[in-house]
Design brief:
Layout: E1 5-16, H1 24-39, E2 49-53, H2 56-59, H3 69-72, E3 79-82, H4 86-98, E4 104-111, H5 119-124, H6 139-153, H7 158-172, H8 186-190, E5 194-196, E6 199-200, E7 209-218, H9 219-224, E8 230-240, H10 252-265, E9 276-279, H11 284-295, H12 312-316, H13 323-335, E10 349-355, E11 361-369
Parallel strand pairs: 2-3, 2-4, 9-10
Antiparallel strand pairs: 1-7, 1-8, 4-7, 5-6, 8-11, 10-11
Helix pairs in contact: 7-11, 10-11
Length: 370
């Protein structure tokens, strides 16, 4: 990127399995208010555009974007709803700023999991109706089959997946945003309830509710207002068709997203370039698969302090379309030195990478630095 875009404000609300006293819109408002206060902006006069990442099926009604503007402070203003992960929403904001359409853009994504009666039925809407729906199979079946193939065809074993769960949940014990952190053994993981073997209950991230808002600004605005941003060095996303009938896909979406982001940033496509790495771990095996896709076969995965110091989705919880923004939030906090009990030393550059989940082949990666 020639001209630069920076994150000048962050705000979040929730990060709990259930929030009975706050509606979806109230969660969005609280996160947005905090982000605008952090950035020192007034949404009524300083923001040029608002982006919200959500999916009608997760909201419970169609044309859900009708309900987006007010709580973001974007009433009668330019508002876009992106049906995709939060990092893709950041991509849309970057394009608006670099094209000159806007100087300051808010990007929000959220999860109100308790409002979804049957998450499995919603996920089934994305599955080819000819081969899974008739037998009533859950998308967990796809995860189990892919996990089995991954274990058979990579250097990683079932035990490595269990170690991922233990490591993530252990790291989460120091993170105030981690609702599912706990101290486990590998045996605990391997004795947990079977879901779609070899996938077990503890291998899968549990849903959580919350909202995250990031305020992005152009370099010109940043200099004029003497802001201290976390800059976006590179961002790339891609979608591939997960054609399961011809063999389960590799995480090529992650490999290509990572390479694209590194190319923009002028970096080698190597995880050694980063001081902190927040990578999607919707399932235990997915963390290993994503790391392998980005950097071949690194010698050490478990125990690497740089990798998901937040505890990842396995400890924090899965935030639906806000999952990518959760990764970005954690990296921004690390770079700003505001990560609290999980703060790493001398963090200057970080990577956040997301996957939209089965049955998609959509991934995104963003490189951040100060």
């Amino acid at each position: 990127m020639h001209a630069r875009v920076g994150i000048v404000g962050i705000g979040y609300e929730g990060f709990r399995p259930g929030i009975s006293d706050l509606s979806t819109r109230e969660i969005m408002f609280e996160a947005s208010y905090k982000a605008y206060n952090d950035a020192g902006v007034d949404p009524r006069k300083d923001l040029d555009s608002f982006i919200s990442c959500d999916e009608d099926l997760w909201e419970g009604w169609s044309i859900t974007d009708e309900m987006v503007p007010d709580q973001l402070g974007g009433a009668q203003r330019p508002v876009c709803t992106v049906s995709g992960d939060g990092i893709i929403g950041i991509g849309h904001a970057v394009m608006q700023i670099l094209s000159g359409l806007a100087d300051v853009v808010a990007v929000e994504a959220h999860s109100k999991a308790a409002d979804v009666i049957s998450k499995s039925e919603v996920e089934m809407m994305g599955v080819d109706p000819t081969y899974l729906r008739p037998v009533g199979a859950s998308p967990f079946v796809l995860a189990g089959l892919e996990m089995d193939m991954f274990i058979r065809n990579s250097r990683f074993k079932r035990e490595d997946c269990s170690d991922v769960v233990v490591d993530m949940k252990e790291k989460g014990l120091k993170n105030v945003r981690a609702s599912y952190a706990e101290r486990l053994s590998a045996d605990d993981v391997e004795r947990s309830t079977p879901v779609s073997l070899p996938l077990r209950d503890l291998d899968a991230a549990k849903y959580i509710e919350g909202s995250i808002n990031l305020v992005l600004a152009s370099e010109q605005w940043i200099k004029k207002n003497k802001a201290d941003p976390v800059y976006i060095e590179g961002l790339h996303w891609c979608s591939y068709d997960p054609w399961y009938e011809e063999g389960f896909p590799s995480a090529s979406y992650m490999k290509d997203s990572f390479k694209g982001a590194c190319s923009q940033a002028g970096l080698r496509p190597s995880l050694s370039e980063f001081d902190v790495i927040e990578v999607d771990d919707t399932y235990s095996y997915k963390l290993l698969q994503h790391i392998e896709a980005m950097d071949g076969a690194p010698k050490s995965v478990i125990g690497d302090k740089r990798l998901n110091p937040s505890g990842g989705s396995l400890a924090v919880g899965h935030m639906m379309e806000a999952t990518g923004l959760q990764k970005v939030l954690e990296v921004v906090l690390q770079i700003r030195g505001e990560a609290g009990g999980i703060q790493l030393k001398n963090v200057k550059r970080g990577l956040a990478a997301s996957w939209r989940g089965h049955p998609t082949g959509t991934g995104a990666a963003v490189i951040l630095s100060r």
